[in-house]
Amino acid sequence: MPVAANKLERLFETIPALISWAIILGLAVLAILKPLVCVALIIIFEIYWIVRTTYLTSLLILGHRLLRKEKNRNWLDDCRKLCRDNPGIDGFEKIYQAVIFPIYKEGLDILVPSLSALAEANYPHERMVVVLAFEERDRNSQEKSRQLEERFGSRFFALFSAFHPDGIIGEAKTKGANATWAAKKLRIFLEQNKIPDEDVIISCFDADTCVEKEYFGCLAFHFMAQEKPLQRSYQPMPVYNNNIWQAPSFARVVEITSTYCQLMESMRVEKFVTFSSHSMSFKTLVDIDYWPVDMISDDSVIYWKAYLHYNADYKVVPMYITVSMDVAYAKGIFNTIKVQYRQKRRWAWGVENFPFLAMGFLSNNRIPFAEKARKIIFLLESHVTWATWAIILGYLSPLPIIRGGFIFSQTVTGYNFPRISAVLFNITTFAIFIWIILSISILPKREVKRSLLKRVGFFTQWLLSPLIILVLGSFPALDAQTRLATGRYLTFTYTDKKR
Amino acid sequence: MYQKTRKILFLGSVVLFMFLLPAILLFTFGYKVDWNNLRILKTGLIWINSSPEGADVYVSGRFTNKKTPATVDELLPGNYTVSLVHENYYPWQADVSVYQGRVVSISNIMLFPRIPQFEKLNFEEAGNFFVFNHENNLLYYIIKGTKIIHKVNSDSGRLEGVINADIFPGEILNISLSPDRKKLICNDSHNLALIYLSKEPRKDNFLINCRDNIQQVFWHSDSEHFIVVTNRDIKVYELFAQGKSNVIILTKLSGRSIYSHYDPASDTLLFSDLQQASDGRRYENIYKIVIGSRFSFPFFKGFQNK
Q1: Is the pLDDT of residue B79 over 80?
Q2: Percent of chain A with pLDDT over 90
Q3: How far apart are CA A328 and CA A252, in angstroms?
Q4: Alpha carbons B72 and A27: distance in angstroms, whole number
Q5: Which site in A42, A182, B240, B257 is 20 to 30 Å from A11, CA atoms measured?
Q6: Which residues of B touch A50 (CB under 8 A)?
Q7: Mean pLDDT of the residues in chain A
Q8: In this complex, is the C-beta atom of B5 within 8 Å of any C-beta atom belonging to chain A?
Q9: Residues of chain A neighbouring B10 (CB-CB closer than 8 A)
Q10: Secondary structure of chain A in the HEC alphabet?
Q11: Angstroms from A409 CA to nearest CA on chain B
Q12: Cβ of B103 and A411 within 8 Å?
């Protein structure tokens, strides 16, 4: 990259952190120097937040309804019906499903259930190809590969392993580098078997991802139903049900909230971006030169790569079918908070999409300016809001009262401000109550019957929400942005999975 | 279909935001819209609380539909008559000035019941009663015309104990409870009886006859000494095993009625007395004496001369 471009990219890397810190420090300074102005700004933010929460909770209810509506639908029948009813659409019989599982330290206890879910999928197995993408630096990879191939090799059209070598120039130790290596191996395999790229839908799943039985039927249906199937990514709804009952309530609430965020985002299709396990046309993947090999947030960057490649004519199609993953937790509450914090910081590292997209926009003249502005502002707004909202609501809003002291509390503003904040907080609590109700249907049934006390405990776990908001609400995002701005780039860290 | 619903929800949210923002901001900063004259006025508010809570709040004769604790907001600057009305209580009323942007906080209002609720605590016809700081919620009363003392819990109204002071020769005028709650002194103007409240080995109740007029009796904090202030002297009695006592006369007094006060926390006695000075004149002074352990070094200090 030329020096000027490099400097420009560094500038873009600092912008999210600069805005976030300016908001936080600006409000803190105003609370001291001009408490009334600070109160006004905080109230505007609180109203914005309440309206936004109400709006997003409504979207969550809609998303939830869709999830329930499309559950247990026989998608394969729907695929055949779609082909029958629309003579223009053909090719269901030739669509291959390829799945890449990037694997690092995950053991067989994690991998076997993921592959078993694939083996039980309601999709012609003779059109399924599975690639186990191992890291060569993992000493156990060969043994794990041997055991898995032995156990599942005959269940699909093909199942083979790819071993990603360490230390390739230009690569970082990321999941994307491993997945890309495996995708290239897959391409060789497809060429050998004379399967065209455009007939293959590629799904890149985290190693702990267990698909629903109808997942591939649903994916094929959506793929065929699209006018431009190659210019779409297909995003299932991630749930964290694999070990949810083993995880502490703290981690459980965090992950249910993550699922909800995804469900809400899925309703805003024009802003929807791929996240975690997702699928797309293999041809598109090849055309855009695979996943990035030096970025951590490969799952979202892949969307922006395709978006730029197709000059903004690229969308994410939400699929209201779930893929289940593991809750990240560790022994003890503090270790769990630490693990969760690191995971959320890694997710928030998606802020690296901002300089990537900004640079991409600069070199692309075919996307209209208005579209560029809309996308970049939305991306920036979502990351800045993420890094500031909990700090504003939890830490900065009491500041004018504390700083204003007795005199301030004797003014109408000083008196009304806490009352208004309390009312707005109660509205948020009501939204949490709705989340609790919705969470009942999203959770898997417990194998062991729960005692009344534990069932009560399940509901009261939501009381942890304020604590979670204060610790995990904004700090991981602010940390990620600050690291990006100061050049202390995040490296990929493996999240230990427990069952 | 869902995207259409979403668009409606989005537009609804925008409208809600646009509506809520000015309304809440104006309210927070104490502004009120005068729709008749289409202008914005800055207001003040009154915060009011009472004991008991739940009184109806009236401002300038108009019921506010609020009960204490209450906030009466959006009041234009000026003078208001605030009244509290609570069923079965005397009403409360005051004139209050409201200033723009300011909070008038009125708390600590006590409402008194029209018919006070009395609770009878004695079980027999009562004479004098006594309450001691170190006996929480307990009161002692003498049954009139007898030498029986009842100990009653003033909260529950329960009889906690019966003390027989038949050792005392006349009518008991005063009782003092020792800090350790194990002994009681009954006295009138010339007799003083020490009664052990629980039976202790080799310790019997005993009676002291006093020639002089007993003014006050105080217990020392160690519960093993008591101070008797008469019109002629101040004595300290020291309790011994077997119900006997030692007595020390701390000082002679002028013989006229004196005032005394004892602080058990510091074992300090304050008393007033007339003393003749070298110029032959009599001065009334207030004295302090610290009665330490075994009062080995009593220390007198004069406070004031007249």
Answers
A1: yes
A2: 64
A3: 9
A4: 30
A5: A42
A6: 20
A7: 90
A8: yes
A9: 55
A10: CCHHHHHHHHHHHHHHHHHHHHHHHHHHHHHHHCHHHHHHHHHHHHHHHHHHHHHHHHHHHHHHHHHHHHCCCCHHHHHHHHHHHCCCCCCHHHCEEEEEEEECCCCHHHHHHHHHHHHCCCCCHHHEEEEEEEECCCCCHHHHHHHHHHHHHHHCCEEEEEEECCCCCCCCCCHHHHHHHHHHHHHHHHHHCCCCHHHEEEEECCCCCEECCCHHHHHHHHHHHCCCHHHEEEEEEEECCCCCCCCCHHHHHHHHHHHHHHHHHHHCHHHCCCCCCEEEEHHHHHHCCCCCCCCCCHHHHHHHHHHHHCCCCCEEEEEEEEEECCCCCCCCHHHHHHHHHHHHHHHHHHHHHHHHHHHHHHCCCCCCHHHHHHHHHHHHHHHHHHHHHHHHHHHHCCHHHHHHHHHHHCEHHHHHHHHHHHHHHHHHHHHHHHHHHHHHHHCCCCCCCCCHHHHHHHHHHHHHHHHHHHHHCCHHHHHHHHHHHHCCCCCCCCCCCCC
A11: 8
A12: yes
Q: Which of A412, A420, A421, A423 to mutate to test the interface with B (most CBs of B within 10 A)?
A: A412
The predicted-structure confidence for B203-224, as pLDDT tens digits, reads as follows: 788 899 999 999 999 999 999 8
Mean pLDDT of B120-133: 88
Omega before A102 within 30 of 0, i.e. cis? no
User: How far away is chain B from the Cα of A410, in angstroms, using its nearest Cα?
Assistant: 5
- CB of B30 within 8 Å of any CB in chain A? yes
Please give the Cα distance from A457 to A463 (Å, whole number): 10
Tell me the C-alpha distance between A386 and A347, whole Å: 11
Chain B's closest residue to A63, CA to CA, is: B2
Which of these ranges, A317-326, B8-17, B176-185, B233-242, has the smallest mean pLDDT? B233-242
B17: which chain A residues are within 8 Å (Cβ-Cβ)?
A: 47-48, 51
**Which residues of chain A have a CB within 8 Å of the CB of B76?**
none
Each as own residue / partner, the long-range contacts of residues B195-198 (CB below 8 Å, 24 or more positions apart, any chain) are B195/B163, B195/B165, B195/B167, B197/B161, B197/B163
Q: Determine the length of chain A.
A: 499
Least CA distance to B8: which residue of chain A? A55
Q: How many CB atoms lie within 10 A of CB A227?
A: 6
pTM: 0.75
- B296 pLDDT more than 60: no
Could B101 and A412 be called an inter-chain contact, meaning their C-beta atoms sit closer than 8 Å? yes
Rounded Cα gap, residues A355 and A383, in angstroms: 12
Residue B304 pLDDT grade (very low, low, confident, very high; cuts 50, 70, 90)? very low
* Token pair 């004991």: residue: B51
For A41, nearest residue in chain B (alpha carbons): B25
ipTM summary value = 0.83
When CB atoms are compared, the residue of B9, B16, B102 closest to A411 is: B102
Higher per-residue pLDDT: A88 or B39:
B39
CA distance B130 to chain A (A): 44
Rounded Cα–Cα distance for residues A387 and A172 (Å) = 26
Asked if the Cβ–Cβ distance from B30 to A62 is below 8 Å, we say no
Helices (H), chain B: 2-28
Which pLDDT tens digit goes with each residue over A332-377? 778 888 898 999 999 999 999 999 999 999 999 999 999 999 999 9
- Asked if B25's CB is within 8 angstroms of A415's CB, the reply is no
Which residues of chain A are at the B interface, by a Cβ-Cβ cutoff of 8 Å?
Answer: 36, 39-40, 43-44, 47-48, 50-52, 54-55, 58-59, 62, 66, 267-269, 409-417, 419-420
